[in-house]
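hey
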């Protein structure tokens, strides 16, 4: 995986992000002191789960020759009592049997980001200067 780098951007909270040659921004909503110029860090976290889920379903369905035309994944994150609660909705588009849909739901829970978020996470932080 390429490293992700964040540094101050324009405005009060905007962050300039890069990974390899890709550049994007993150910001807080106006109501939270930002200018809303990009997704918030929590929105990127939700996007990671949504994208990983959809990619995993696409790869699996392709390998199994399922008629999956699209997988629309919607993720919402709510924080309650210091617990992040993820709500994920999956809409499967295509000519799929009930058994195929059930199997795809099982596969959704095996996407790497789902496994990372549901498992133990360790964060090592160090100053480098």
């Amino acid at each position: 995986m390429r490293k992700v780098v964040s540094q101050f951007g324009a405005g009060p909270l905007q962050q300039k992000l890069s990974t390899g040659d890709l550049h994007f921004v993150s910001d807080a909503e106006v109501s939270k002191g930002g200018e809303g110029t990009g997704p918030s860090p929590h929105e990127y976290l939700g996007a990671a789960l949504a994208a990983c889920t959809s990619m995993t379903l696409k790869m699996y369905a392709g390998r199994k020759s399922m008629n999956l035309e699209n997988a629309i994944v919607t993720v919402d994150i709510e924080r309650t009592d210091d617990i992040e609660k993820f709500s994920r909705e999956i809409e499967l588009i295509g000519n799929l049997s009930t058994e195929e849909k059930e199997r795809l739901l099982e596969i959704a829970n095996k996407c790497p980001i789902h496994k990372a978020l549901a498992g133990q996470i360790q964060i090592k932080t160090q100053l480098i200067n």
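The first helix runs from residue 41 to 63. The CA atoms of residues 61 and 103 lie 10 Å apart.
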